[in-house]
Amino acid sequence: MTRILFVTGTDTGVGKTVVTAAFAATARGSVAVLKPAQTGVTADEPGDLQEVQRLTGVADLHEGVRLLEPLAPTTAGRRQGVVLPSVDDHARTIEKLAVDRDLVLVEGAGGLLVGLDDDGNDLADLAARLEIPFAFVVVARAGLGTLNHTGLTVEALRARGLPIAGLVIGSWPAEPELAERCNLEDLPATTGVPVIGRIPAGAGALEREAFVAAAASWFE
Ligand SMILES: Nc1ncnc2c1ncn2[C@@H]1O[C@H](COP(=O)(O)OP(=O)(O)OP(=O)(O)O)[C@@H](O)[C@H]1O
Ligand SMILES: [Mg+2]
Description:
alpha/beta, Rossmann fold, globular
C-alpha cells in the first residue's frame, strides 16, 4: 500500500527539506515528492524539490505553486496577485500520485498552520481532505525551546485527529550540549510521540552518494 507522509515542522528552517530527502533516500520502491507551495525563489532558482533531487537523485517532483517573495504562501500570493491552488487541488494530486508510487512525501511550507490556499486552509486541512491513509512527521529543532514548539505542533495535529508517525530532529549537533541531550530524552515524554530519526548537522551539505549511503543510519 502506498504510504503518504506529510513532513511538517515546528517552524520554517528546521530541516524539513533535508528530512524529506532522507526519507526519499531510504525509500524502497518508487517515491514522489510534492511541495504544495514554494516561496522565496524565482522561476530559475532551485527550490526545496531541487534540493531533494540534488541530495537523492529522486526526480519525481511536483511543485504546486511557486512564489517570488520569501513569505507565507497566502501572503506572497496576495502580494503577487496569484490565485493559489486550493488544498482540494493538492489532495487530488496526492491521490493521483499514490495510484502507482510506493511512497508520496509532502513537504509543507513553514509550520503546520501556515495557510496554503486563498481560503486559509493549511497542511492539516489538506491532509484531512485525503480519502487514503496518511501520517505526519514533525521535524523539530534540537535545542532549547523545542519542547514547547514540538508540543504545540503535536497538540494541533491531535486536536484535528491527524495521525503522527514520529518526530525527527532536523539537525542534530556532532557534540550535543546539555539542553539538546535532555530534549532528546524529554521530547517523547512531553509529546507522547517517539523520536524516529535525527539528521546530523551538516548532512544537507553532503554529496549525493554520501547522503544516500548514510540516510538509513539516521532513523531508528
Ligand atoms: N541536518 C542538516 N545539515 C545541514 N544543513 C541543514 C540541516 N538541517 C537544516 N539545514 C540547513 O538549514 C537551513 C534550513 O533547513 P531547511 O531548508 O531544510 O528547512 P525547512 O524546514 O525545509 O524550511 P522551509 O520552511 O523553508 O521549507 C537550510 O539552509 C539547510 O541546508
Ligand atoms: Mg524546506
